[in-house]
Amino acid sequence: MSEKPEKETVSNSGGTFLSVDIARFALDSANVGIWILDAKTREFLPSDRTKALFGFSPEEDMSFEDALRNVVLENRSTVITAVESAIKNHSSLYIECPVVIPPEKKHRWLSITGGFSSTDLNNDFFSGISVDITEQKQNDLRRSRFIGIVSHELKTPLTALKAYVQMLNNWAKKQKDSFTIGALSKVEKQVKKMLNMINSLLNLSGAEAGKLHLTKLTFSIDELISDVIEETLFITATHKIIMSPCEPIPINADRDKIEQVLVNLLSNAAKYSGTEAPIEIACTLKENTVTVSITDQGMGIAPDDIEKLFLPHYRVKSKETEKVDGFGIGLYLCSEIIHRHNGKIWVESEPGKGSSFKFTLPSS
Question: What is the pTM of this model?
Answer without folding.
Answer: 0.53
